[in-house]
Design brief:
- The protein is an alpha+beta fold and 210 residues long.
- It has 3 helices and 18 strands.
- Helix content is 15%, strand content 46%.
- Strands 4-1-6-7-10-13-14-17-18 form a 9-stranded antiparallel β-sheet, with helices on one face.
- The protein is globular and about 40 Å long.
- The termini are far apart.
Length: 210
Amino acid sequence: MTTFGEINRDDSRNRRWLLRHGALALPLVLALRPLRAVEPVGSVEEVTGEAFGELESARRALDRAAPVFLSEEVVTGLASRLAMRLGRETTVKLGEQARLKIDRFLVNAGGEMTLRSGPMLFDGHPHRAGVQIRSPFALIAVRGTRFFAGPSNDRFGVFVARGSVAVSSAGQQVIVREGEGTDIASPGAPPTPVKRWGAERIRAALASVS
């Protein structure tokens, strides 16, 4: 049976963990539910410019090695970049003015994210359960791949550098494989037929997240 003293020791360890890892600002800690409900799913690897973590009504600045939490929206500023590692084998890079919410993530076993705006580069190894990335433009189903999603040539583009993804919108789905891309002109529009992207467009897309 768990004693009151053991619960206190657990809470104390949680607080020390948060402080050691760059942790939440005090207003966020106070505003949140119990600390044990704040679940870290990864950490920041690199930041250029400004980046923030937003959860409920609180915001904290993200620096290198800062933890990233479940249900948190990661936000980048103008001319900013951020790279974070989720679990052991998944890296996500965001370009400027991006908003990405981590809805669900099981370490090395897939999850769900929402890309509200901006460009991202996803790089992950195959899992039994894939990752789903939602955006106002499309649903992207991923099972271990490296791909770009975000603004490209004045449209929302998806380009696969390794592996394959399924892109669904307006009741239609296309499978995008290595070296190929598709576009969605506007929210609610179907994906265009898959085609190979030119070298210049690929460079521009990757440069937007690096």
